[in-house]
Specification:
single chain; alpha+beta; Fructose-1,6-Bisphosphatase, Chain A, domain 1; D-Maltodextrin-Binding Protein, domain 2; 2 domains; 8-stranded mixed beta sheet; 5-stranded mixed beta sheet; 8 helices; globular; binds 2,5-anhydro-1,6-di-O-phosphono-D-glucitol; binds manganese (II) ion; magnesium; magnesium ion binding; FBPase_N; cytoplasm; Fructose-1,6-bisphosphatase class 1
Length: 335
C-alpha cells in the first residue's frame, strides 16, 4: 500500500532540479482535504456548517457556511507556506498576494473552488474541492499580479480535486497522468487506489441539467435527443445521471465513461461554471486521463482568460462523446 505522501516524494525524485515546493504545496492541499472531510462528516450534527451564511459571493450566488469555511481553511493552509505567492478563490472577489517578505522565492499561484456542489451539503450528497496551480509569470520577489492568474489552462503545473463521497478521494495530475488516492480516516492517510486513471474513449452516461432544456442552444438540444435515441450499434439510449456537483459527476464519468455538459443557456449566456476554478483544472485532468474538454467549439485549455471569475460553457469527459457534441454544436450553430 502506497500513501499519497510517499507517492509525492517518489515523483519528486523524477525531477532532479525540483526544490520540493510543489511537493510542499500538495501536502498542504492534502491537509485541507482532511480538515474539510472531517467537518463535512459532522455536517448533520452541527449548525455551524449546514445552511446559508446569509451572504452572497462576487457572482451573486448564495454562500453556504461550508463554502466560507472551506475557503478560509484553504487560504490559511496556503498562507502558512513560504512557497505560495498568491491565491484566488471562487468565494473572494480579488486575488490575494501573499507577503513577499515571507515568501521571497515563492513562484506558484493557487486557484480554487473550495467547495463545489455546495447546494448538496445540507442533504448529505457528495461535494468536492477543486484546485489549480500555475507558475507565476511576474518576477519572483514582487507581489503577484492579475496576469499570474489569467493564464491559459495548458500552462497549469498541477490540478486536482477532492471528492467527499461515500469515501473521500483526492485525484490529481502534474501533467504525467492522473492518480487517485482514497482516504482511510482511521489512519488519517490517503492511499493510492486508482493508479494512472484512463477515461474510456466513449461511454453510456450523459450528465446535464435537463430541466433547463428549453434554454439550451440547438446543438445541445439535438445532442440530448441523440443520447435518448435507440441504436444498438452505439449503445443508445444512454443513461442520464446528474448529481449537480461537477466534481462528483465528472469523477463518475471519468471512471465509467461519459460526458458532463453545462452549456450556455438563455439565463447563463456564458454557461455557469467558472473557467479558472472549474473548467481549467477539470480539463487538465480530463486530457491527462485521455479525455477531452471543450466549450462546444474550442479546447478549454487554449482559452486565454480575461477575468478572474469568467464563466465558460463546459463539455467534458470521454473523447468521442465530447467530439460528438462539437459536431452538433457546429452543425446547429446558426439556429
Ligand atoms: P458551486 O457549488 O461551486 O457553485 O458549483 C456548482 C456547480 C457545479 O458543481 C454543478 O454541476 C452545477 O453548479 C449545478 O448547477 P445547476 O443546479 O444549475 O444544474
Ligand atoms: Mn463549483
Ligand atoms: Mn464552489
Amino acid at each position: 500500500m502506497k500513501t499519497l505522501g510517499e507517492f509525492i516524494v517518489e515523483k519528486q525524485a523524477d525531477y532532479p532540479n525540483a526544490k520540493g515546493e510543489l511537493t510542499g504545496i500538495l501536502s498542504s492541499i492534502r491537509l485541507v482535504a482532511k480538515v474539510i472531510h472531517r467537518d463535512i462528516n459532522k455536517a448533520g450534527l452541527t449548525n455551524n456548517i449546514i445552511g446559508n451564511a446569509g451572504s452572497e459571493n462576487v457572482q451573486g450566488e448564495t454562500q453556504m457556511k461550508l463554502d466560507i469555511f472551506a475557503h478560509e481553511t484553504f487560504k490559511k493552509a496556503l498562507m502558512a507556506r513560504e512557497d505560495v505567492a498568491g491565491f484566488a478563490s471562487e468565494e473572494e472577489e480579488n486575488f490575494i498576494a501573499f507577503d513577499t517578505q515571507r515568501g521571497r522565492n515563492a513562484k506558484y499561484v493557487i486557484l480554487t473552488d473550495p467547495l463545489d456542489g455546495s447546494s448538496n451539503i445540507d442533504v448529505n450528497v457528495a461535494v468536492g474541492t477543486i484546485f489549480s496551480i500555475y507558475r507565476r509569470v511576474s518576477p519572483i520577489g514582487t507581489p503577484v499580479t492579475l496576469e499570474d492568474f489569467l493564464q491559459p489552462g495548458h500552462r497549469q503545473v498541477a490540478a486536482g480535486y477532492v471528492v467527499y463521497g461515500s469515501s473521500t478521494m483526492l485525484v490529481y495530475t502534474t501533467g504525467n497522468g492522473v492518480n487517485g488516492f482514497t482516504y482511510d480516516p482511521s489512519l488519517g492517510v490517503f492511499c493510492l487506489s486508482h493508479e494512472n486513471i484512463q477515461i474510456p474513449q466513449t461511454g453510456k452516461i450523459y450528465s446535464i441539467n435537463e430541466g433547463q432544456y428549453l434554454k439550451f442552444p440547438m446543438g445541445v438540444k439535438k445532442y440530448i435527443k441523440y443520447c435518448q435515441e435507440e441504436d444498438k450499434a452505439t449503445n443508445r439510449p444512454y443513461t442520464s445521471r446528474y448529481i449537480g456537483s461537477l466534481v462528483s459527476d465528472f469523477h463518475r464519468n471519468m471512471l465509467k465513461g461519459g460526458i458532463y455538459i453545462y452549456p450556455s443557456a438563455t439565463n447563463y449566456p456564458n454557461g455557469k461554471l467558472r473557467l479558472l476554478y472549474e473548467g481549467n483544472p477539470m480539463a487538465f485532468l480530463a486530457e491527462q486521463a485521455g479525455g477531452l474538454a471543450s466549450d462546444g467549439f474550442r479546447r478549454i485549455l487554449d482559452i486565454q482568460p480575461t477575468e478572474l471569475h469568467q464563466r465558460i460553457p463546459l463539455f467534458i469527459g470521454s473523447k468521442q462523446m465530447v467530439e460528438k457534441t462539437q459536431d452538433f454544436m457546429q452543425q446547429f450553430s446558426g439556429e
